[in-house]
Each structure stands twice: as C-alpha cells, then as structure tokens.
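Late entry, evening session. Most of the bench is empty. Finally got around to the prediction I had been postponing all week. Sequence below, unchanged from the version circulated by S.P.
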Amino acid sequence: MATSDVGICNLALAHLGETSITGLTEGSAASNACNSMYDFIRRATLRKGTWNFATRTAALSLLDETAVDYTYVYSVPTKYLRAIGLHPVDSKKFFTMRGRKIYTNEAEAILEYIEDVTDPNLFDDVFTLALSFRLASALAIQITGNAQNAMAMLQQYEIVMAEAEAVDADEDHTDKLSQLGQGLLESRVY
C-alpha cells in the first residue's frame, strides 16, 4: 500500500482514472485539490472507524474546573480525535464530551481514544484503502466534474469501511474473552 501522503493521493487519483502527482505543492489542479483536502479527509476517516493502529489509552489530566452535572472535568490528549470509552469499564461510569473536555463522575479517568495519526507508514492497509476512496469521492467533482464518480467512490468507501469493522471486530477479543470467562464461571458445577 501507499506509504506517503502523495502515494495515498495518487491511489485516490488512480481510482478516478487521473494522472499521478509528484507532490502536494507541485501546482497542478490535482495536487492543489489533494493538498487542500487530504488532512481533513484523513482525520474524518480516522474518526469514522475504531482503527487498531490509531487506538490509544491515556490517563486524563484533571482540570481545575467545575460542572453542574458532573464531578470532574478532564482535558483530552493533544492528538485526540474521538473517544472510544472511559476506563475502568463499569456501566455506571458515564461521560460526555463538550469541546475538548470530558465531563464525568470518574475520579481517575483513563480514556481509550482514536489518535490523530499522521504517518502513513503506521496506517493499516484497509484504512489506507478506505482513505483513498473517501479522498477520491471528495476530489471527484473538483477534478473530473462528474458527480457519478463521487457517488461511486463513496460507495466503495462504505464497502471498505464495512469490511474494516468486521476485521476490527475479529481482532478485538477483550469482550469475547470476558464473556467466555463469565460463561465458564456460570456453568461451573461446585
């Protein structure tokens, strides 16, 4: 798969049947369009999935701030894009996001989140493919003037995202293992 921003842009352009670019600032219409859209589309695609390569866990920094409806207010990590959950996992530990702050009643909150990963060498191949189709969809009208191309690329993006969710579910065994362990405990005869 592509291992650079330009490589991913070229993959998107190839989906559209367009000529490759050599850089994001070369001055061509395609490079200008890629340059203006790439980071936005990359972040949006990261936010859309629960990508293992971008999943992080961090103890949150408590802010000296109060809220009417929650006991604690925390700042999110610098490269935070989207919350997955708050730990320790307990059905009574709810939280809400307001701007770049987390409000909760959890005294020692640990956040599992999606980080803004910018290095394409770290991207999962399925993410790269999804990103390229989403970028192609965003570029289609600007570069080709064809709305049907945009819709076709968006459909391909949705197909890849569905496959990515299935793969991610297969790779996440934490719930399956805890459910299996719970089932074994419940079925055990003493």
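Two things to note before I forget:
The chain has five helices and seven strands.
Residues 176-190 have pLDDT under 50 and may be disordered.
Will write this up properly tomorrow.
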